[in-house]
Design goal:
Elements lengths: L8 H11 L5 E6 L2 E5 H11 L4 E6 L2 E9 L3 H10 L4 E6 L12 E7 L17 E8 L2 E8 L4 E8 L3 H12 L3 E5 L10 E4 L9 H8 L11 H18 L8 E5 L6 E2 L1 H6 L15 H5 L5 H12 L5 H16 L1 H11 L5 H9 L5 H11 L2 H8 L11 H10 L20 H28 L5 E5 L3 E7 L11 E5 L3 E5 L1 H33 L2 H27 L5 E3 L4 E6 L4 H5 L7 E5 L5 E5 L6 H17 L7 E5 L3 E6 L11 H15 L5 E5 L7 H19 L2 E5 L15 E11 L2 E10 L7 H7 L4 H16 L11 H10 L8 H22 L1
Parallel strand pairs: 1-5, 7-10, 9-12, 10-11, 13-23, 18-22, 21-25, 21-26, 23-24, 24-25
Antiparallel strand pairs: 1-2, 2-4, 3-4, 5-6, 7-8, 8-9, 14-15, 15-17, 16-17, 19-20, 19-22, 26-27
Helix pairs in contact: 5-6, 9-18, 10-18, 11-14, 11-18, 12-18, 13-15, 16-17, 23-24, 25-26
Length: 841
């Protein structure tokens, strides 16, 4: 590139703005297009398949260039964001028609994956989270927000596993963008932005929090890492959105005791949002239970599913309203009909605050607010807290906007003419200017007596009065000569000149005035954004609650009872997804009853018999109850749980370089270290990725650990029939099996869970059901007979007393016990060793 002083003023302006945004593609507004230059142009042309041209940059220099129309820019930006680029949008801050010289331009917004607010680029059914993470030894904090909701959520983690827990929460959130210190690295497959330390500096953050947050914070409310995470998030929002954000965000500090915790493994294994096999929504729990009708409701039900409640009073409140709407079909259906006509109030208000709201969106907001009085009238019969009606606002919006709106604001026509007297004058002139000219012509003809007087127009002289030479003696003195022709003279008057000015400039003045009136209204409306936003969020709650009632009605769900004594009782339980797949009346129902003395169920039986379905349905019913949703059962009593853990299926995690067995062990480690006596644990096979004896030993040890140490309610499906012996050795362990019926060589799977242990695996029969060739089935039967007749004997007591002692010694925390404790422990071990020796002899 030549010296910058040799370039044109516009290219110098471009390079100056670009120098402040080197990491973003700069969309530079030039008339009706956004242009990109130099390397940005080459990238955009390649990624968007645009024609790459060039522009004179001054003094013989050329600049590569490509561009997109301003009215279609949203789609192009969306494509680039999906490809991992970020965008700086540079707008013209002056009207080029009214400006002499170079038009002033500024970057008005930076668009990244986490800062999208354009509705056309967002999935209306899910949140688009921007997340900030900060860590210290034994401490971590994350703060995150969907910029359309204006609620920042903050979570703090402490202890040796603080960072691991924070990363697990991030995996379940699936944020669009993660903010972190630029020197840190986070091993997660999400878009990440490294920021300088100044973003996370919390030493001067109190003023920042005061200006931006509705929630008032005291220094002692948050840890240092939490304040740093929050500061980084807010500063990044301010920088990218390029606007002041005065007291618009509500801060919610999320406390683990308020929610039933679900780690990433549970969310994936229970197929809450997508299936394990196809990674699609169809076949997931959310696909079955989501009967919401508004975009806001669809996002909220996902949040309720990801963050179920633990507070019994709040859950019971939700269940009360679900039952209320369930009992009144007419009320429920009318409410849902009204909500079905609701626009996405949350995201419309987001565009209002960020300064990008269009007339069509404002009209949609008005139409939605006009529905609220009808909803309030319906809710009066059930004493549901009514919504603000914003009557004055809807009256103003109705007066402001036309009902039929143009595609863009460029050519005006979106403000009602009667909204402002001056605007009405301009519109009348635009629509009836020719009538006014004709009226003036008739008046002048009658006043002067010049019968052939005409008002004409050309581009050089504009409008003029033309009088032939034969009538020159009748021309009044106030006529001003404009042009002399061979057979006539052309004149103008002050009245004609004034009318000409109005006609020629009416359209332009109409458009400018409409924009001014619109902007003034929008600026004033932004001061009421908080109230409208909270109303939209409450409408979303009404949508979810009424949808739960619709679900219960359509699928015959019942109200669960939340128990604080730890009992779990499900009568005729059904898997909510599987019963949809196989059709009504086809699902085989099953019971589950667990209490303080029966906390661990070992379930054996043939493959494809229904073990996995049973495990998942107990977990899903428990989860749905904590959401405040009715459940698929004849009756359900669900204990208040702190977490649901799952170890389900076999799958490699190739992205992390982990085999099936290592994935299984990592998930098991999480369960063993974090489960409590208030947890529900689902174990579907353990040890399948290693040798039989290793797998059996690990499974046996896990059963002992969970039953003797942490004591969560556990359902364990296994193919190790040897584990059923544990029922005789450990209190609280109960055996259950899949009921089957053998008819000759054929096997009928009854899919019923009954007490007792399975004495056969029926593997060959299951293989036959699966359709393996008869030759393979026969040969497998022959080999099985040979193995059963051989000398291979499996011990039913895999844990010898000596092994128990060795394990106990290895578990001694040498660096954490006192000398006195060491002596006591040594004495205890000697006694156990002597007892073991005598028992053998």
């Amino acid at each position: 590139m030549k010296d910058i002083s040799d370039l044109t003023p516009m290219m110098r302006q471009y390079l100056d703005i670009k120098s402040n945004h080197p990491d973003h593609l700069l969309f530079y507004r030039l008339g009706d297009f956004y242009e990109l230059f130099y390397e940005d142009a080459r990238i955009a042309a390649r990624e968007l398949e645009l024609v790459l041209t060039s522009r004179n940059a001054g003094n013989g220099a050329k600049a590569d260039m490509c561009g997109v129309p301003y009215h279609a820019v949203e789609g192009y930006i969306g494509s680039l964001i999906e490809k991992g680029f970020s965008i700086a949008v540079c707008e013209q801050m002056e009207d080029p028609r009214l400006t002499k010289g170079l038009v002033k331009r500024e970057v008005t917004k930076i668009i990244t994956p986490g800062t999208l607010t354009e509705s056309g680029l967002l999935d209306s059914t899910s949140n688009n989270y921007l997340l900030s993470m900060m860590t210290q030894p034994d401490r971590a904090a994350i703060s995150y927000v969907d910029l359309s909701s204006f609620t920042i959520r903050l979570q703090m983690f402490e202890g040796p596993k603080a960072v691991i827990d924070a990363l697990e929460e991030i995996r379940s959130l699936r944020p669009a963008e993660i903010l972190r210190p630029e020197d840190d690295s986070i091993d997660l497959p999400f878009y990440q932005t490294g920021l300088a330390d100044r973003y996370f500096d919390f030493s001067q953050a109190d003023g920042l929090f005061h200006d931006v947050l509705q929630t008032r914070l005291h220094p002692e409310d948050l840890s240092d890492v939490a304040r740093a995470s929050l500061a980084g998030l807010i500063r990044y929002i301010q920088e990218t959105q390029k606007i002041g954000l005065n007291a618009r965000f509500e801060l919610t500090i999320q406390i683990s005791q308020d929610h039933l915790m679900l780690d990433h493994a549970a969310i994936v294994n229970l197929e809450l949002f997508e299936t394990l096999r196809t990674k699609e929504r169809k076949g997931s729990l959310i696909d079955v239970i989501d009967r919401t009708v508004s975009p806001m409701g669809k996002r909220l039900i996902r949040e309720w599913l990801r963050k179920p409640l633990r507070q019994k009073s709040t859950i019971d409140d939700r269940l009360h309203w679900v039952e209320t709407f369930l009992k009144d079909d007419q009320l429920r259906d009318r409410i849902r009909h009204q909500l079905d006509n609701m626009a996405d109030i949350e995201r419309i208000i987001g565009k209002l605050i960020y300064g990008s709201i269009q007339p069509k969106e404002l009209l949609a907001l008005n139409n939605s607010l006009l529905i609220i009085p009808s909803i309030n009238q319906l809710l009066q019969s059930v004493d549901y807290s009514i919504f603000p009606e914003f009557q004055d606002l809807t009256e103003q919006l109705t007066k402001l906007l036309r009902q039929e709106l143009p595609a863009t604001m460029k050519d005006g026509g979106f403000i009602r003419p009667e909204y402002h007297p001056e605007l009405m004058e301009y519109v009348d002139i635009v629509e009836h200017g020719s009538d006014r000219l004709l009226a003036l012509e008739i008046k002048e003809r009658q006043t002067t007596g010049i019968k052939n007087l005409r008002i004409k127009y050309n581009r050089v002289f504009g409008y003029f009065l033309e009088v032939t030479n034969s009538y020159q003696h009748l021309v009044p003195s106030h006529y001003i000569r404009k042009q002399t022709l061979t057979g006539s003279e052309r004149y103008f008057t002050e009245e004609l000149k004034d009318l000409e000015d109005k006609i020629l400039n009416a359209r332009e003045r109409q458009i400018e005035l409409e924009k001014q009136l619109y902007q003034a209204f929008v600026t004033d409306l932004a001061t009421r954004a908080d109230g409208i936003l909270r109303t939209g969020q409450r409408l979303a709650e009404l949508d979810v609650l009424s949808s739960f009632a619709t679900l219960a009605k359509q699928e015959r769900y019942v109200r669960p009872e939340l128990s604080q004594n730890g009992d779990l009782m499900i009568e005729d339980g059904r898997h909510p997804v599987v019963e949809q797949v196989i059709g009504p009346g086809q699902f085989v129902v099953n019971d589950c009853q667990m209490d303080e003395t029966n906390r661990f169920f070992i379930i054996t039986g043939p493959n494809m018999g229904g073990k996995s379905t049973y495990l998942r349905q107990v977990a899903l019913i428990s989860l749905m109850a904590h959401m405040g949703c009715f459940v698929p059962a004849a009756k359900a009593v669900i204990p208040l749980l702190d977490r649901i853990f799952t170890r389900v299926g076999a799958s490699d995690d190739l992205t992390q370089g982990q085999s099936t067995f290592m994935v299984e062990m990592n998930e098991l480690a999480t369960i063993l270290s974090q489960a409590s006596d208030r947890s529900l644990v689902i174990l579907d096979e353990i040890g399948r990725g290693t040798s039989t004896y290793d797998g059996l030993s690990i499974a046996w040890s896990v059963v002992e650990y969970l039953t003797k140490r942490t004591r969560p309610k556990t359902l364990f499906a296994t193919h190790y029939h040897e584990l059923t012996e544990i029922e005789d050795a450990i209190s609280g362990v109960k055996n259950f099996r899949i009921a089957v019926r053998q008819m000759g060589d054929d096997l009928v799977l009854l899919r019923k869970i009954v007490p007792g242990r399975a004495h056969q695996s029926f593997g060959i029969q299951a293989a036959k059901l699966a359709g393996l060739p008869q030759q393979v089935i026969r040969r497998a039967g022959q080999i099985l007979e040979q193995l059963e007749a051989s000398d291979i004997v499996r011990s039913k007591q895999p844990v010898e007393p000596s092994q128990e002692l060795i394990r106990e010694i290895l578990d001694i925390p040498i660096d954490q016990i006192t000398p006195l404790e060491s002596l006591n422990l040594l004495s205890s071990l000697i006694k156990k060793a002597k007892h073991a020796h005598h028992s053998k002899t």
